[in-house]
Design goal:
By secondary structure, this protein is an alpha+beta fold. The strands form three sheets. An eight-stranded antiparallel β-sheet has the order 2-1-4-5-6-7-8-9, covered by helices on one side. A six-stranded mixed β-sheet has the order 10-15-16-3-17-18, sandwiched between helices. Strands 11, 12, 13 and 14 form a four-stranded antiparallel β-sheet that branches. A hairpin with a 2-residue loop joins strand 17 and strand 18. Helix 1 packs across helix 5 and helix 9 crosses helix 10. The longest helix is centred in the first third of the chain and has 16 residues. The protein is globular, with a radius of gyration of 23 Å. It comes from Bradyrhizobium elkanii. This is ATPase.
Amino acid sequence: MRPSDIAISNYRSIRRLFMPIQPLSVFVGENGVGKSNLYKSLSLLRDAATGRITRTIADEGGLYSVFWSGNRRRGDDARLRLAVRFDHVRYSIELGFPSPVVAAFPGEPMIKSETIEATHGKKTILMMERTNSLVSVRDENGTWSQHKEAVLPSETALAGFSDGKGSPEIDLIRNAMLSWRFYHDFRTDPASPIRKPCLAITTPSLSADGHDLAAVLATLFTIRQDAGDLQDAIEDAFPGAELRAWAENGRCEFELQQADMPRPFKAHELSDGTLKYICLLAVFMGYRLPPFIALNEPESSLHPSLLAPLARLIAKASRRADIWIVTHSEHLMEALRSESSVPLRRVIKAKGATTIEGLSLGGEFRDGEDDEDDDD
């Protein structure tokens, strides 16, 4: 279940956007053009799978804060819409303000509708439809069942209906989105859990906050018993350095021996940039990668000399997972361009709305391949 395209409407600086998702999607743009809103909208979709989407919006200031920030006229569409397609199934959700007859807090985000559609050949079949608090589900035999007041306006049907026998498409989409992983930043202050030993538990992929970094690294050394690729990546970024990770007394630790230092440094002694790069190594080189990985400005706080090794790391990982990156670094973009044949996308603002250079309204990238004039 790999995502093939997404649609976003009325989210912050994004008025309307429909675009494909590729194995490696890289978006570069200046500050203020709304590139982080691309990342956040994907994260909101995952929150629909966990059931926390309305809480996340409330945490960001409510619908008044996250709704389309451009000019509005009376009668304009007043709903936030998100959708994602996986192979033959598509999930969409709409959120809006509470109606006068609904008991709700002022400005509270309300889920107005959700749908799941399955495509078989040229035929599209509605498998789940939620309108306000009424949820209708089509089972595997094609029979509809209705569930009135089954969910609150703040709850998603995607998270609330977990009976795969009732509608396997619900489980397919929810589980696919729950496996997505988002990395916005890693704390590297002295109190950060990344700098401390962690529980010795086999850990195939890094958590969003990186607290299990030592366990991810130790899993490669101790469980897989093959850290050759990891050591090659360390050598690429820090020539002459060697990384070691181990488990002892129920805790995992790691250290980095650098070529010009008489002794190895443990996590609490490493510089912020070095520690963050090791986190990125764990993101892209874990025992098992999440099927979809999104990162917001991974180059932040890294020395420019690390951008080329980072680009090589990303390009190699894109063979194992779909990767989505937003960045303002032209240097990282150029490094990725030299390491991967995937076109890199530039985020721009047009008439106050975030869009992608070369993206058509139908969700296709032109990539400078517009028809040329005939010679005849």
